[in-house]
Amino acid sequence: MTIQVNLYEAKTQLSRLVDQAAGGEKVIIARNGRPVAALGPLPKHEVVRRTPGDWKGKGWIAPDFDETPDEVVDLFYGDSR
């Protein structure tokens, strides 16, 4: 079912209209009798459950990943170290 409401009514009754739209009803909002917007339900999304450990063994970190060469540190800090 589709209902049409004017902009003023939509502003004052937004919560009720959103509830109707979430329930599957299409709500058309009109300005001066001309439709300008529509409220409707969002499509249902399937919840994807994560399984801990899915990425185990699929990545690696280099043993020296947190070591910064002195030349790079000097570029940032100069003589202030």
Detailed description of the structure:
This protein has 81 residues and is an alpha+beta fold. It has a domain at 2-39: YefM-like fold, CATH 3.40.1620.10. It is built from 3 helices and 3 strands. Strand 2 and strand 3 (34-39) form a beta hairpin. The longest helix is centred in the N-terminal third of the chain and has 9 residues, at 14-22. The mean pLDDT is 90.
- Shape designation: elongated
- Helical coverage, percent range: 25-40%
Order of helices and strands: EHHEEH
What is the spatial order of strands in the main beta sheet? 1-2-3
Beta-strand proportion: 15-25%
Question: Biggest β-sheet, characterized?
Answer: 3 strands, mixed
Count of individual beta strands: 3
Question: First CA to last CA: what distance?
Answer: 71 Å
Structural class: alpha+beta
Write the layout of secondary structure elements.
Layout: E1 2-6, H1 7-12, H2 14-22, E2 26-31, E3 34-39, H3 70-77
Parallel strand pairs: 1-2
Antiparallel strand pairs: 2-3
Protein name: Antitoxin
Family: Belongs to the phD/YefM antitoxin family.
Organism: Actinoalloteichus fjordicus
